[in-house]
UniProtKB/TrEMBL annotation, chain B:
Domain 2Fe-2S ferredoxin-type: 1-76
Keyword Transmembrane: no
Protein name (Swiss-Prot/TrEMBL): (2Fe-2S)-binding protein
UniProt keyword annotation of Cell division present: no
Keywords for the protein's UniProt record, in alphabetical order: 2Fe-2S, Iron, Iron-sulfur, Metal-binding, Oxidoreductase
PANTHER family to which the protein is assigned, alphabetical: BLR6218 PROTEIN, OXIDOREDUCTASE WITH IRON-SULFUR SUBUNIT
Amino acid sequence: MIHNLHSRRGFLRGTVLGTAGLLLAIQMPRTGKSATRAFADTQATFIPNAFVKIDGMGIKLIMPHTEFGQGIYTSSAMLMAEELEVRLDQVSVEAAPPDLSKYMDPFLYDQATGGSTSTRADWVRLRQAGAAARIMLVEAAAHEWGVTPGECRVEAGKIYHDGSGRNVTYVEIASKAAAIPLPKDPPLKDPSQFKIIGTRAKRIDTAEKVNGSLVYGIDVKLPGMKIATLAMSPVLGGKLTRYDEAAARAIPGVVDIVKTDEAIAVIGDHMWSAQQGLDALSVEWEAGPNGSMNLESIVSKMEEASRQNGVTVRNDADAVSAIAGAKTKLEAVYQSPFLSHSALEPMNCTLHIQDDKAELWVGTQVPVRAQNAVASATGLPAEKVTVNNLLIGGAFGRRLDVDTIEIGARLLKDIRYPVKLIWTREQDMTHDFFRPYYYDRVAAGLDEDGRLVGRTHRVTGSSILARWAPPAFVNGIDPDALDCAAETPYDESSVLAEFVRFEPEGLVTAWWRGVGATHNLFVIESFVDEMATAVEQDPLEFRRKMLTRNPRALAVLNLAAEKAGWTNPLPEGRGRGISLQFAFGTYLAHILEIEVTAEKEVKLLRSVIAVDCGVVVNPDTVEAQMQGGVIFGLSSAMFNAITFTDGAVDQSNFDTYRVLRIDEAPRIDVFQVKSAELPGGVGEAGTASVAAALANAIFAATGKRMRSLPLADAVAA
Amino acid sequence: MKTLEINGQSHQVDVPDDMPLLWVLRDVLGMTGTKFGCGIAQCGACTVHLDDTAVRACQTTMDMIDGEKITTIEGVASTEIGAKVQAAWLDKEVVQCGYCQSGQIMSAISLLASNPKPTDAEIDEAMSGNICRCGTYVRIREAIHSVTA
């Protein structure tokens, strides 16, 4: 069971990733009434499965996962195009509609994009979808020509019969292919035959992003549409008490004012009138039960909770006794703050609610949940809610929740014209669902040879999983909360890992890039450095010695060390820090070089990443995710913490929630290990590696061990 | 009524004097390439050019505009430098989510127009007002250098 902890929500892998489940997901019914109707409705459209659609307009690929910058539209299209035998410039793509029966992510048990699971989920099923479609198209052509499919060949969306010199395009033969039986278990190419997978294929979603024409959710334009913006209580959970409606209505361009107990919005001709109107409302709120909430009281309750035993997640070979009998003993407390997502596109949704149906335009990581949110707020059946899932200007886990869509639908349920509801940055940041605060107690014992003989780790924090996917929270164990803490890449047999669930009152916590792995790797990989220091060993050598049974982990560590020049001496004030991980199915070593200046400012100089994520679909995407993941992780590890005073969030915009800028960004070098293993996830791996590498580099530069994030101000203090 | 000259075209708009150009572009003229990110000139997503100067459209109100030529992301392809920067962005595969990239490109064009061969330090200086949450900074530097090469 324990090895399943390596993948967040890995609990599902065994039950759903089986072949039967995958085939179910890709096959449309081909017999009986529904199949007949599907083909009758679409006439000349060839829809062999949930992912491929070919008609007179061309070849369309349906994207089961949402694109928010990670490059999944390109990777998904590459997987299908490889087997379909088309070029990427011959296809167009569209977002899948909400339909759990066809588009469920088998790792997440939902139609969801997150947890670095997309490529792992799609690796087989999208290639099968492409292969099945190709086989049917070829059979249709062969049938037309009175030859066998084996005599035909395919290239770039065209079928050739060289013997007779005939050829036909997929588009031309599509209507005939619809009558061909769906092939069972279509064979897939041997990797040596790959033409697209493994190449640095250009992204398919970028041309419109450099000329301003791409329509994100916030850019939707509809006939008769108005623009709205909202306010919620500064004290979280506070209720609306008083507002000056007349003053708002006096603002030119203000059209309507709508409210619920928790939010009020002004609808206007444009965002400016809506904002002016909202200001004019002079809204008053009743603080409610959270009025005295502050960060200090939350942390002090967590500290108390962390003294109790937690639910045991792993307990091998009595680690407590092993530590008690060890020559060298270490104990430490680590803390990781609440974090906001702060994607650059503020939260928004556009709704057109009518008496008998509704339409939603939004970028969401969970389209079925989005549909249900509108249905429950309006009382309409879910099938009467159309969801248009648009590309997103950054998500980082925020759009795995649909609270903003629910709020929007509740506010707008009596409005019958289309309204685009936009959160200001301040509303977005202060009413985010935050990454949890974690309070970690760790201990370790080492023998006279400096070898690790026992380790304990007690994580105290919120369980996002228990809220987001209650069936996955079994026996009080949250596999995500202990991701990378219960199991490490190292040779260790004596480990006690516990989880103390602590839900901070008045707060909802949420997924965030890497969540469990990001937090736990900061703790574990910092603590491994502490162990090395305690037994006076080099942090690299100390790790190497514990990797006798993990060649892939050792290989990335050695590669990073070599590329970073680990043994090259550094000038005064500089330091290098290591972090090593196996997370999301991917091995990664990170060596970060920094300088702490005489003014105690941390300068980020060079980040070296060595990554083995198994077989690679697009090496450029892997590189981009590593670079971007490191920058994202550096923002939080250096600067970020969400705090509360009297029930309100203290940070509200990028002036108080500082993110890394280009002049602060290090050089980042990414080295990829060639591998034929199954693909691992890459969207979060880079981010998860950062905090420990940074803390260890600061220790190397200054001798100061930092155990509480963020670090920049702590170094200066 | 106010006349705005945007990307070589004249537009008549009837909007309040204190209305930021950002919302005039997006909500009145339907030009949504210019993005809203923070509203307080911290993120640079709304960067446009007034004549040749890069400005934040969220802080540029109607009464501050007096006949200057406005250029937005939708208009840069028609200039030589703009087309080169867009091509470099695609060639170096800079873009991830893309939401900040309109602003990044507008700032890069403004930099290159006045300094055709910027150093890393000059790029950092000119581009540090533009936040990218996806972390494309490494490739932005590369792309700007490739335009100068």
